């Protein structure tokens, strides 16, 4: 009987499943990689970038997302979730 050999992935595979070793993280991520890593579309990430809501750096004409800053940003978002407003879709307690 021969066991199947699986070559290790050359780039991080997202999402990482619990119980699996995390791949080494790059110092900074390109937009498509950063969007995939945080679970949003590249278009959403670009909108957040233009509004200055997500940490990023410009190197010449390129935009990169420093991994440590993205992780800290996500931690801040998780610690302070947005407050749901009554005027949001699916209003709570509205008149019947």
Could you characterize the architecture of this molecule?
This protein is of the alpha+beta class and 96 residues long. The protein has a domain at 28-79: Winged helix-like DNA-binding domain superfamily/Winged helix DNA-binding domain (Arc Repressor Mutant, subunit A). Helices cover 31% and strands 10% of the residues. It is built from three helices and three strands; from the N terminus they run βααββα. The protein has helices spanning 31-38, 42-50, 67-79, and strands spanning 28-29, 57-59, 62-66. The chain has a three-stranded antiparallel sheet with strand order 1-3-2. Strand 2 (57-59) and strand 3 form a beta hairpin. The longest helix has 13 residues, at 67-79. Residues 5-9 have low confidence and may be disordered.
Radius of gyration: 19 Å
Give the uncertain stretches in residue-range form: 5-9
User: Counting H and I runs of at least 4 residues, what is the number of helices?
Assistant: 3
**Might you state the CATH topology name of the domain at 28-79?**
Arc Repressor Mutant, subunit A
Query: Can you give the helix content as a percent range?
Result: 25-40%
Net shape? globular
Strand content: 5-15%
Structural class: alpha+beta
CATH domain class name of the domain at 28-79 = Mainly Alpha
Widest sheet: strand ordering: 1-3-2
Average pLDDT confidence is 80
C-alpha end-to-end distance: 67 Å
Main β-sheet description: 3 strands, antiparallel
Q: What oligomeric assembly is this protein in?
A: single chain
Q: CATH H level of the domain at 28-79: which superfamily?
A: Winged helix-like DNA-binding domain superfamily/Winged helix DNA-binding domain
Query: How many strands?
Result: 3
* CATH-defined architecture of the domain at 28-79: Orthogonal Bundle
Q: Spell out the helices and strands N to C.
A: EHHEEH
